[in-house]
Amino acid sequence: MTWPFLVFLLIWLFCLAGTFIPAVPATLLIFGGALLTAWLSGFELWCDLAFFITLGVLTLLISLIDNVASAWGARRYGGSKQAIWGALIGGVVGIFIPFGLIVGPLLGALLAELLIVRKPLLLAVRAAWGTLLGVLGGVAAKFTLHVLMGLYVLWRLWPTASL
């Protein structure tokens, strides 16, 4: 195995664990690791351009998953527009607290439903529950896409790893 292969493998494994920690920008680190390995292995513009365009599009899509999934979950379970905004704001605030990935959107949607929309507790909890399901589904999707993204890079590096 070559240095670029091992470097990316270590970055990727760290990022897989980092998928569950909001403060770790795992998607961007995987993309950065792919750029680093391309540079270490001799970047060739025309060979690597399509590869990096594909990875860049994946990176953008994965970056949207958390927010879109929590908002979708809130809406699916009867949450108002305010609950969706509460979930989005709670997700951003949640970056700075332990277990914030789960607690932030959940509390944001719940508080928005209770304090702004003034829904009854049971309906507000239902919208918050939908937010939680959306967040967990988003994390599962993000982890799966991180696995596929990493395997794609490792597969691309494999022919050079055996040299």
UniProtKB/TrEMBL annotation:
Signal peptide: none annotated. It comes from Deinococcus psychrotolerans. Keywords: Membrane, Transmembrane, Transmembrane helix. Coiled coil: none annotated. This is DUF456 family protein. The keyword Transmembrane helix applies. The chain crosses the membrane at residues 50-72, 84-107, 127-155. InterPro entries: DUF456. Pfam families: DUF456 (PF04306).
